[in-house]
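Researcher: I've been going back and forth with a colleague about how GTPase IMAP family member 8 might be arranged in three dimensions. Neither of us has a model we trust, so I'd like an independent prediction. The organism is Coilia grayii, in case that matters for your notes. Sequence below.
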Amino acid sequence: MLVGKTGSGKSASGNTILGQNLFRSEASPLPLTESCMSQSKTVDGRKITVIDTPGITSETCEWLSEWKNKAHLVDVFLLVIQLGRFTEEDNSTINWIQKNFGEEALKFTIVLFTGGDQLKGKTVEEFQRESTKLQTLLDAVERKYHIFDNSTSSDYKRDNQVKELTQKIGKSLGNKIGYGYTLAMCEKVKTPPEMLELILMILGKPGTGKSASGNTILGRNAFKAEVSALPVTKHCESQSGVVDGRKITVIDTPGITSEMYELLSEDKQKAHLPHVFLLVIQLGKFTEEDNNKINWIQKNFGEEALKFTIVLFTGGDQLKGKTVEEFLQESTKLQTLLHCVEERYHVFDNNNTSDDNQVKELMKKIVNELMKNLGYRYTHKEHEKVKKALRQEEERKKEREGRTRNQKDRFEGEIEADISDADENPKKQQNQNKPKNKIHISGKSCMPQFVLGVLAVALVTYMTGGFCPYDYLHDPAELPGLRVMLLGRPGAGKSATGNTILGREAFKAEFSAGSVTKYCETGNSVVGGKNITVIDTPGFMNGGLDSWKEGVDTYLHSPDHSPLVFLLVIPVGTFTENDDVVKHIRETLGEEALKFTIVLFTRGDQLDGKSIEMFLNENAHLKDIIGSVGGGYHVLNNKLPTDRSQVETLIPKIKSLLWKNGNSWADENEEAV
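Model: Here is an independent structure prediction for GTPase IMAP family member 8. You can compare it with whatever you and your colleague have in mind.
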């Protein structure tokens, strides 16, 4: 029986032994052998049966029971290892064989090195001395080994190396041949608790790193994980692998913001199969949306699901020397969430997939903290109870929608009646619309050359009886100063953006669970010969919109009436419809503010060669936001603050925006808000 990891040359060795291409053997990124296969042939007067097996680290262990069923027929195990590529994975195969087939199996094991042509004059003894781990492995099988060159075209060489192998088998195993690995030996090996299959369901909002975490756990790219404006995972997907000798099945799910029924009905069986739920939260800015995840799990999977939930923080590389305990102390809401899952959490750095310890530590936490409860799994009964509650909620929702439609129809009827009454009584309507103190003129835009002329000032003064708030109504390029207010959710990168624009560390910008900016702050610098004042603001979601508005009111006014523009900061990544930032601007600053707004994308480095246009094409909602503002969009990489070209290209966009809209979001807009 040939055993070993995928790609070591097991099938080719089987063909060499039998002297015929009976097993499929070719270069491939995927395992070619997916189940046990046996072929027989007479070699030197002896019938030889070769059993080829899938790789020890293949995606599933479904073939393991098949292997064990045939193992008692085996005289010799050939552990195939490719010369020159001895890895930790190869080294662990001895432990794997012992776990699955017992200590006795090693007495019937010979290490078969493939790639003998790679030695190039070096003896195998010299090769062994280069690796103490390889020597330890050979000691475990009493230094029984042989070398194959499966690429040789010489029939004589091929036949000779097979003959030498059979001689070594006879010499080293002696009178054990004929007994082989017996059925009694096979049946003595019980599946240990740590070999039981473990099923993990990964939950969380889009863009938190669920798919990447699944890949880290399985040690391969099992799920599609990339930076995208849209959720990459559209449906439930499951992939399996072997982690430390245990079969692990990972169920990747769409973001929690996806429709709950799509998630639950995607695969009804999967909803009650998981042993453990991993709630993935990205280290950084902990938002109200993250805080609602526990309620979402309780609502859709039931109260019992929290007993089997571990919070998995992604982005561990962002801690930068700060301990996770220090990070957690910065957010009381995050501490409350962890309290709901009995303080169970783990940290992943999905950019460092070579670090096996982070997966091993997670498995230990699952086994030590949860396996004692795994006699209870998320049962069918519990699932049915949750589904019933969801159906009742859906019925109540339909009833509420029906009442809302009736109220809307009644309201529209009243409006139509008011309009009809106004048409019949135009004089009454005119008196109602007569201006009191101010006249607000609105209409379509006209040519900048006209509105920026002296005639425009005279016309405005004559028509309104008011005054022009600027004593420099001319080309924005000549304006002495400029105010830039940064808007966006917590963690979008506003403070870092302000530092990049000003070319210095004016604002505190660091990795934190809570919002770093608690109050409005200003910073000044000369950029391109122009005095720039940047106004950094707290995130939209901090304390509600009313308190946010009160905090920024003072900064909307300027004694010298220098033009004010808004930069709506959005990080490149998954942008959900929950990020209703345009609505927030309308509610706090008014519709006019959008005309003086530019969407500024941060984390430009995460585009990974993808153009910003390709990124935007993936999300219609994001394109709608850009269509709602007057200044288009710009991209910054705040990790390269010394690259002034990205700021130099932003300033002309601001000037163009001011030129198009008549210089600034004026004081009357501020007063109206």
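Researcher: What would you highlight for our discussion?
Model: I'd start with this: The chain has three domains: 2-188, 194-385, 448-672. After that, consider the following. The CA atoms of residues 129 and 479 lie 75 Å apart.
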